[in-house]
Amino acid sequence: MRGVDRVLALVLGLAGLGGGVLLAAEVVQALLGRPGHLVVPYEGAARWLREQTWSGAWVLAVGAGLAALGLLLLAAELAPRRRTLLVVATEEPDVVTAVTRGGVGRALEQAVAAVPGVDGTRSRVGRRTARLTVRTALRDSTELEAQVRERAAAALAGLGLAAAPALDVDLQRVAA
Amino acid sequence: MSGPAALAPATRTPGAVRVNRVVLAVLGAVLLAAGVLVLLLGLGALGADRADRAVLPGGGTAGWVAPVVGAGGLAVAGLSAWWLVLQARTDRLARIRLEDADGGRTVLDGAALTRVVEEEVEALPGVARASAHLSGTSAAPRLHLRVRLAGRADPGEVHRAVTGEVLARAREALELDRLPARVELDLPRATGRPLS
Question: Which parts pass through the membrane (chain B) (predicted)?
């Protein structure tokens, strides 16, 4: 959202700066009693607005669009920001170390990739749960599941997170 | 363990991030209010006769309208300029002034220090890349460190090495008792599957 906010700030900032100055210039032009426009040919739009009533379909559509856009923007800005870093427990009061959630997932995947029988891995780490999906072609996978669970749990414990997410191992059988 | 268990990524421009959020939220509220007002007018909730009036009344406007609109335009332009300038303001500390006991003054280039920190961290086993910067003030600087680990590194080990050796040397260089630091570790996707 930060990146989107930044782009919106630049676009709307430039539009506000340019639009505000042009609006003031047009007002001065009109106040000086000169006919016509300075830069923006607004006469057509003004004529159209004089012909429209508030109950017109186009006006209602524009109103609905504005309300929807405003609601969307407001909701997006008020939503809490994603905390994508998990803090590592430390004794040092002055140092905060954190691991990216993607990094935690990759550490789990690396820990089990070498287990015989594992054909592929996928991970999804949240603040409360870390889900590790393992694909295997083995028919009897009870032993594999125990091994994967053990290695992944060890890798997660090795990160030493202050509040480690609960590990959730999911085995997916694929055709050999 | 005090403090939060999860954090949002650090940013170079914390002020701009906060202001953007507030300004865009206010803008969203204004758009929402304007849209709802148009709908209420159009649907006749504010009187059936108003719904049938023209959006822009014909004939001339009162004498005070044009100057007010012009002043509003200038105000919008000014606020937009302030908003744009704010985007470039970072919390980075470029220089650090060290006061000696005998009244002498040394100015330390922040980039020189962070470069040394980066090199020291990159020399640690298991580290692929490191980037560092300083924020805060000369009297109370803060160090931000982003570390990309190599395939099979132990994040705990790297954390211990960074907090133990690297930060101790940085504190020494800055002649500080405390140097609060924030370290962000990232583990890359391993290239290729390890054979076993």
Answer: 22-44, 64-86
Which one of A28, A65, A83 has the shortest CB-CB distance to B6?
A83
The residue of chain B with its CA nearest to that of A121 is B193
User: Which residues does chain B have within 8 Å of residue A127's beta carbon, measured at their own beta carbons?
Assistant: 5-6
Domain A85-173, CATH:
3.30.300.30
Q: Under an 8 A CB cutoff, do B56 and A15 touch?
A: no
**Right CATH number for B95-186 from 3.40.50.1000, 3.40.50.300, 3.40.50.2000, 3.30.360.10?**
3.30.360.10
- φ and ψ of B51, to 5 deg: -65, -25
Rounded to an integer, what distance in angstroms lies between the CA atom of residue B196 and that of residue A116?
Answer: 8
Domain with CATH 3.30.300.30 in chain A: 85-173
Chain A residues with CB inside 8 Å of B11's CB? 2
Q: Which residue carries 């040397």 as its tokens?
A: B169
Could you give the ipTM of this predicted complex? 0.73
pLDDT band at B192 (very low <50, low <70, confident <90, very high): very low
Q: Look at the block and give the residue holding tokens 């590194």.
A: B153
Q: How far apart are CA B119 and CA B132, in angstroms?
A: 10
Residues 6+ apart with CB under 8 A from A139: A173
Q: What is the amino acid identity at position A91?
A: E
Q: Using CA atoms, how far apart are residues B14 and A2, in angstroms rounded to an integer?
A: 10
Sheet holding A166-173, edge to edge: A118-125, A129-136, A166-173
* Closest residue to B66, CB basis, from A30, A46, A113: A30
Q: Are A88 and B156 inside 8 Å of each other by CB? A: yes
Six token digits for residue A164: 């480690």
Residue A59 with chain B: CB contacts under 8 Å: 38, 42, 55
